Inverse folding.
């Protein structure tokens, strides 16, 4: 929802997230504690949270934070399990996304890790530009490895490699996960893949067969990073992930009937608001 200009009413957000909470997903990325000037759509995150019925779900809640102030707001809420922090190894993208340099971002991440630890939360660090860099910054698989080493030393235990603008290839996905997962057994690696409509399968296949078992998705691929400009590149469609894992006989814990209902809710919201 973050890149949508029309304000989606709070009740609509609650209704949609509630439908997702019935599906059986491990984690729901439900909102962001970020500047309302930067992303006006997320101004009602605390209100949305207050209206969710969490009594019949085992799904955990994740909130995105972009700075210490957002993290301080998020940790006040006992219902939130994860704080998600977008950390870019591209200086250009870090500035575009959070208006911070990489050095400043490392300081913020450490503060967020410490705050999360004090408040019994976990941090999901998103390694933006994890699979490539269209902005001309230095990038190769060894640089990703070096940053993984640095973040592990800081105390990151969940690291989601993020294909922020859809530049990943199966070859790079395979290489990174096959090398990083055995080298850092203390880290749970995730794949936050963005994709065009035709390349989703090869990306998921490469990540899963390389040992990645944590995947982010958005129904029908709606959304994407509002800072990345490519209309064909959207989020990884959740229904594509589910179809892949069903074929692979992997247990997702997701129930199809509630998911169909959530799929319908997504259609209603994302075709009305732009």
């Amino acid at each position: 929802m973050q890149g949508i200009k029309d304000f989606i009413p709070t009740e609509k957000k609650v209704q949609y997230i509630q439908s997702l909470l019935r599906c059986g997903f491990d984690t729901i990325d439900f909102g962001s504690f970020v500047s309302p000037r930067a992303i006006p759509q997320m101004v009602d995150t605390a209100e949305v949270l207050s209206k969710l019925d969490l009594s019949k779900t085992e799904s955990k809640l994740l909130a995105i934070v972009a700075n210490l102030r957002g993290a301080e707001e998020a940790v006040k809420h006992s219902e939130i399990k994860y704080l998600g922090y977008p950390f870019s190894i591209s200086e250009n993208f870090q500035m575009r996304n959070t208006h911070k340099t990489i050095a400043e971002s490392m300081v913020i991440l450490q503060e967020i890790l410490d705050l999360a630890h004090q408040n019994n939360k976990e941090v999901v660090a998103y390694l933006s530009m994890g699979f490539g860099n269209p902005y001309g910054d230095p990038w190769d698989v060894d640089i990703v490895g070096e940053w993984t080493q640095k973040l592990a030393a800081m105390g990151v235990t969940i690291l989601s490699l993020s294909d922020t603008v859809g530049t990943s290839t199966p070859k790079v996905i395979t290489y990174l996960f096959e090398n990083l997962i055995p080298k850092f057994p203390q880290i749970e690696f995730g794949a936050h893949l963005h994709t065009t409509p035709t390349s989703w399968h090869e990306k998921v296949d490469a990540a899963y067969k390389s040992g990645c078992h944590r995947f982010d998705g958005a129904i029908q691929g709606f959304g994407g990073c509002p800072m990345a400009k490519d209309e064909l590149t959207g989020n990884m469609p959740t229904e594509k992930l589910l179809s892949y894992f069903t074929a692979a006989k992997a247990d997702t814990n997701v129930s199809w009937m509630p998911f169909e209902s959530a799929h319908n809710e997504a259609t209603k919201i994302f075709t009305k608001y732009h």
Observations:
- The chain is about 40% helix and 15% strand.
